[in-house]
Fold these 2 entries.
Entry 1:
Amino acid sequence: MMYRMTNLVRVAAVGALVAFAACDVDKRDLFGPTTPVGGDIFRSYVAIGNSITAGFQSNGINDSTQRQSYALLLARQMGTRFAYPSLSLPGCPPPIANTQTGALVGGASAPPCALRTNASSTDILNNVAVPGARVLDPASRTTAASNPLTTFILGGKTQVEKALDAKPTFASVWIGNNDVLVAGLSGILVPTPGLGQGIISTQAQFQVSYDSLISQLTGGAPGLKGVLIGVAQVANLPSLSAGGLIAASTAIQAGLTAAAGVPVTVLPNCTGSTALINVPSLIGAIRAKTHPALVSCGLGFPGVPAPVGDIFVLDPVEQTTLSTVISGYNAYIKGKADAIGFAFYDPNVLFAAKRASGEIPPFPNLASATATFGTLISLDGVHPSGAAHILIANEIIPLINAKYGTTLRPIQ
Amino acid sequence: MTLHRASRFALTLSVLGLPVAAGAQAFGLNEIGSCALSRGFAVTGAPCEDGSSIYWNPGAMPKTRGLTAMAGAAAIKIDGDFTSDTTFQKYNTDISTAIVPHLFLNYRTGGRVALGLGVYVPYGLTSQWGENFPGRFSAKKASLQTLYVQPNIAFQITDGWSIGAGPVIGHSTVELIQGADLSTLAASPAATFGQLGIAKRTEFARATLKGSAMAYGVNVGVHGRINPSWEVGARFLSTLYFKYDDADATFEQKTTGLTLAANNPLNLPAGTSIDAILAGQFSGSGALTAQKVKTRIMHPAQAQIGFGYSGFQNTTVSFDYAWVGWRSFNTLPVDFQGPAKASSRELLENYNNTSSVRLGVEHRYTGGAALRVGVAGAAAAAPDATVTPLLPEQDRGYGMLGGTYPITRTLSVDAGIAHIFTTGRRGRIDERSAKQTAEQVNSGAYTLRGNILSLSLKLSH
């Protein structure tokens, strides 16, 4: 009997050892993915948009500019992964390095596109924004706005498809700027052959496209949270300067002459005018001899045929039209954000304030080759600089925190 | 559009670059014999009397007098998953239950000699993942099955000591199915599709590799009784070097569904289907037509020493230490026989030798019944940088339970079950270069677990 008991004890001891081994503790949390510091809603953040979101600056884009995108800055504050389609230096295309000489990053020998970096090759992108994209594009594989970057970034998919590949839990959408930007900069709001494509989307068209985008995105990612960003008012761009300002300043006129390389005459119809002149484009056209060396702030000046006074000029009526269109877009975007439980950010409060304070200058500093449009706008006069992206991110962060009860910290 | 010649090489290389097949070997489960399994594989010094010692210790065969025949099989069910750092998504394995046979015959004459034959599977693995598993470009499915046939002769030197040996004839078949990643393919002499924006892990082809090979080795052992209570044994199974010189590779196009946008860098019309561009590669003289490939897989040497104590009534306690020479699996050559011959290369594996400890207890009852328990632990052979979809290897422990049920005086059935425990391990789903560290390439967490049910029918006469 004693032997039998002893044997049973031995067997039990071994059994206990087996049972100990059988403690199948789930150690996944010790070696697996970790929750972002900003909270679980930021587990997978995707950014849909156009050039601003992509990190396009100074009429170019490369890894350096991509790293300055507000979307990447937001992701850092969220503590979440953020893969972007890194474009090799000097860029695709290389950004402007000097507004006076027109030199590009990488110099004259730089290729027009240095392709994606091999190291950035990934199946899951978080920044799927494509420069040039309009409201129709994120849900479409190809449109009239498609360009080489569409393929370089999306590789044959739509922005929404790429975004859904990331199984997003949080998304930002900033789209629509390109539906009005070219019209605003050209001063041609109605499509005119040979002059301009006008405003791309009517309110109805905008809403249909935007709704399709949001429906596909939220339909593919149930429970998605995020922020929708309004369309920027073109009139706040430093590329656009008031005709009255130009007429009143001999220094500005001297600068125009210096930049254009020929004497530039400012016509009397600019005196006191609130028409906005696209100075960089006008200078470029004068240099290219496609525009007479004069500034006209409206059509109909005696002896000055159209389109001079129309092209590169956003007269007060056009400003109102454009502003109304953009406001209509933004009202719809805000309503959509409210409807789907997203935060909404209107960037125009920031841009208007910076324009009013002069941080976005009322007239380009043509004497400066590297800070022509101030510190907040890059050398193309349109796209935000790295400093502006920080401001944008810091304005979005409290909106996200307020909407979702998170505690994302501002960028210092 | 035609693919650049260099791209065709790279493509084939990427498709057939099997780091994979070799890795399968490291999952040697040792499920050879139901008795041995349920005793934690601690049977070198205190062998099971069922003929399985032809594998476990060829020198111990004279212990069993007369004719012993044993046949059976082990059903192995392995489950696992991979959780991606990127998406937090978990991908489960999709592995069918494997049935692994074993057969042993042994006959000891009235003299000092025992003759035998063993047929067993010392190394083998099937790993299989789902269609959307991101690591399918390394291995969607990998199956390695190696059968060893071993005639054996053993000799009783003294009353307590015996030796034995047998040549090993190995036959190995390998099957590998993996995806081909379009992003790694050269679209032009200057750029890959990845550099043009095609996402990594865009599957445009699926490759299937099948091959077989023979190899030869030897298994030797010695067994002795130190005193009435203590036994000792040791064995050595040599390396078997399998050369798959005539493997077949076939390819199937997979639809990407991608279409090119306007103004794309390939200068093709908007809406062009990428699948249509690639279709020509799968027929005629295309790069992705059937071709031959050679590879080599080293099945490593094994050594084991064990002790058995039978001082308790009707009970044997055994303890073994086993070593497997995985360091011999350092590189894996891939020699293409088709248009990709110039891209032949050696893939880095850098496996380490492994050790395991094994403990078993057997209690025998009157009438021939027996109850067995065992535990074992084994260190992983794969280094941190080689934990892959084909073999997400990790340190593992075994817990075993089994027994013998006598049907008649000469016929009995052995049964054993084992559960394989692992702790989980970080691993990768992409290939790596020699300069890349585990921290750089590992992108998720693997878990594995398994169960084995082994049944053997034993005839003693």
Entry 2:
Amino acid sequence: MDPVIELVNVVVRYDAKRALDGLSLRVHPGEIFGFLGPNGAGKSTTIKTILGLILPDSGTVRLHGLPASDVRARAAVGFMPEETAYYKFLTPLELLDFYGKLFGMPRRERRERAKALLAQVGLDGPVQRRCLSTFSKGMAQKVSLAQALINDPRTLVLDEPTSGLDPLARADLHRLLDSLRREGRTIFFSSHELSEVELLCDSVAVVCEGRVVRSGAMKELVGAAAGSSLERFFIRTVKENARS
Amino acid sequence: MRAALAIALLLIKEIFRKKDFYVALFLMGVILAYASQMKFYEVRSVTRYLLDLGLTLVFFLTVILAVSLGARQVPSEAAGRTLQVLLAKPVTRGQFLLGKFLGTFLAAAAAFGVFAAVFFGAAFAKGASFEGVLLAQAGFCFLLNLAVVSAMAVGLSPYLTVSANVSLTLVTYLAINLYGPGLKDAGAALAPPLQAVTWTLYYFLPHFEFFDLRQRLVHRWGALSPKLLLFLAAYAALYAAAFLVAGWLGLRRRKV
Amino acid sequence: MTASAALLALLLAAAGVAGSIERRLPSENASFTLEDSLGRLMGTAKEGLGDMLFLQADIYFHGGAAGRYAETREEHAKEGLIAHAETGGDWIQRVYRKVHSHAHYHLAGRQKQELLPFFALATRLDPHNIEAVLTTAYWLEAHFGKPDEAAGVLQKGRRDNPVSWEVSFALGSLYFKHKQDHEASVLYFREAVLKSEGLEIERYHRVDMHYFLAESLWRLGRPAEALPHYRRAVSFYGPDESPVLKKILLGRIAECRVAGSSAGDVPA
């Protein structure tokens, strides 16, 4: 089966510094893929490269079989950034309606879907018509998730999706991601919450200094031995990389 | 085009939901109200000064709104990270920039419509009259002017901060309007290096004064020929395209 | 109430309080005027604005065309279209001249009233612009039939510019020609003569000052006082200059003598 996301020897430079230094990874259809790494390892740069926000200096990036720079590749992708980003003068309904237009969704469909998605993330009722400038961080994060789902995407790319969410909202998100995986969607997400990665992900990759140092199925990497955990695996991997 | 139009409509919402437009409208209203009640030696039938002042206010306030709106599009989207979310959708950078330009132009044109309605209401109430064809031409030419200014502000926004862009665009706009026609003669009196600079500016900067029909409207000089209008439209289209292409070149490979 | 609306209300209230305080501040003039506030706000920029508005009056007179005109005497007095715009120049200049008409045009008839706002504002904003004061008074008196308003402008101009002989002379002329008030015209012409002493001014101005002062005195039945001024006026001309005017002046001198003024040497 062709990978949904494929990066081969990708190099991205910011002036003299290599943010990605020959990074390669593959994400297969229908899996939840966890992307881990210490701060400054290149996680956000990788995500931006996958989405065509950054053009690599060398190497190839393919999304749904198309070059990542091809706008058609993003037609079936939903993206949730690490920091909430919205137009403060809009309401959540208007924001989702706007993003729906960009996907060419008919008016009725996108309006109905916008209401349903906002209700699904816990923003039901009059709050849907309140200006986004009045929203708390947690509420904005929910809107951010809803906009990532507006086009009913085959693939979701999430950058620290549970950042800013309370435990209840976090649990709701986990359930949502699980249900999306059961629908056959592919989810690629980065997170510092190793417990949720361990809970949800089928595969993980650990990136250090712009390179994937370990990747594979969760069970194989972490191991079945008693006392083994993703946290221990992660710390061990990062330390080994630092020594080498 | 669909994406560009969706982005454009967003800007129209923005201009009417932020304070800038209402501040400009209030300012215009106050100035016109004060000016219209002034009496000069007990003569009531003077209207040209009011038309001149009103048209100047309408034109320049609209330009200021267009520039401030256009200049902040790329920088504020980048700073607010909405640019990442937007470009992660099936939207090309060219569509994004085109949408921003259309939005700036349409939003400013909508503001112009409101300002013009207020102004002409006051003018007609004071007994002013206008030649219909010339009035339409003046509005059309101003919209051409607005298109070039909007393109300039949006085109420069990938390269400059908001304040630098606003300053540069407005200073260029005002300077060309005031001194544009005289730049060639001024350059002729300068030493060669400065002369070359002056003449380069004279030939390459857009001559915004081409689109300013206030003198004809206020002093009743009569309409322009259709051929000239066609030329002005082509001139505006050329400069707008040039600024937008320059903006696209700056945005094309930018790391978002 | 939003923060913006509250700020706006606060600004308007502050403006009202400021205006109220202004009225109570001691000032040269008894009544509060806009110029006092503007002067405090703008400083000398107010005068610059006034001068710009005065120039704008000339542009308006020429139908909004800000070109350079070398008018002949005949053209100067004409109304309506005087001459079509010049041609030539590069394509930019040609397009500019097509959009902004550069034909030579003068406002005609009632259209000239459109100059009034600029005259009014120019003299209010820059009361020390003598040319604006004189031009405004001239137009009010000669073109708009408002000699009283012209006198008002000149009176204010005289208060604002106490050393200006031009304003005093213009006042004298106004009272002499239009109001036939020779007592007043004597006052102002005398003032003009005194203020212009020691200044380098055109000879014909001095001739006019002394001549009209003398005429005013003559019409008041004071030939003895008029005589020295007629003589002074004649003294500005050489033997072969202005024979017509000199003839008039010499005629008046003779009349003054006949009327009982003291004999004096008159240049041949």
